[in-house]
Design a protein that fits this description.
This is Pyrethroid hydrolase. The protein is an alpha/beta fold and 238 residues long. Helix content is 32%, strand content 17%. The protein has a single domain, classed as Alpha/Beta hydrolase fold, catalytic domain (Rossmann fold, 3-Layer(aba) Sandwich), CATH 3.40.50. β3, α3 and β4 form a beta-alpha-beta unit. α1 crosses α10 and α2 packs across α3.
Length: 238
């Protein structure tokens, strides 16, 4: 049995893992979730959200036996957690996620992608502190292969994404490098270019890279298959 901590991406919350949790539990694993600051049920004001506070929310839910799974932007705060305290986790799994490069912010990493698939779908708040995703673009970006009820379920829960933590550079060292890592990339991702995911997946050893034929949200579209991949990785990770 493995202990998983599931970390959501931009504008989402712990609610997005609804279907993956029972699939993991059916395989004998334990799965915990976390709401990033200002997301889900977390009451933190958007103006107070930082990359460090996101990192700390993850560390608060992790133990030395925890495999931390970060989706999309979640790849950044899980990496920050590994840099801050590499002994607080067993391993990192990047799920269709950004893998930081030393000294770059997530915004800078996104701009280095070979194609921009997401930028024209976001609307910045009037105070410039956050952004939301245009409702008419949500399905094509995140959920195009998901069950029909996924869209209304998610639209009722998607929230503004603070910009500051995503625009904060992350310095990485041997502390981060020493944490075991795996990567799961999606072949039909319409948020992060699949070829960019393939490039970023090289942070993991070849034997710890996996592929799923899915959109950006395999936890909704293929929860059973995703759970099986995580089960397999749990057996392979140190």
């Amino acid at each position: 049995m493995a202990d998983f901590l599931l970390v959501h991406g931009s504008c989402h919350g712990a609610w997005c893992w609804r279907d993956l949790i029972p699939a993991l539990e059916a395989l004998g694993h334990a799965a915990q979730t976390v709401d990033m600051p200002s997301h889900g049920s977390d009451p933190t004001p958007i103006a107070q959200v930082t990359l460090d506070s996101c990192r700390d929310a993850i560390l608060a839910g992790s133990t030395p036996d925890t495999i931390i799974v970060g989706h999309s932007w979640g790849g950044y705060p899980i990496s920050a957690a590994a840099e801050a305290n590499p002994d607080a986790m067993r391993a990192l799994v990047y799920l269709c996620a950004y893998v930081p490069r030393d000294g770059l912010s997530m915004v800078e990493m996104r701009k280095r992608a070979p194609r921009q698939m997401f930028a024209d779908a976001v609307e910045k708040s009037t105070d410039g502190l956050s952004y939301t995703v245009r409702p008419d673009r949500v399905q094509e970006l995140f959920y195009h292969d998901c069950p029909p009820e996924t869209v209304p379920y998610s639209l009722a829960r998607l929230c503004p994404q603070p910009i500051a933590p995503q625009d904060t550079p992350l310095a990485l060292s041997k502390r981060f490098a020493g944490v075991p890592k795996a990567y799961i990339r999606a072949t039909d991702d319409r948020t992060i270019p699949p070829e960019y995911e393939e490039e970023m997946s090289r942070v993991a050893q070849e034997g710890l890279r996996r592929v799923i034929n899915s959109s950006h949200s395999p936890f909704f579209s293929h929860p059973g298959e995703l759970a099986a991949i995580l089960d397999d990785l749990a057996q392979e990770l140190p």
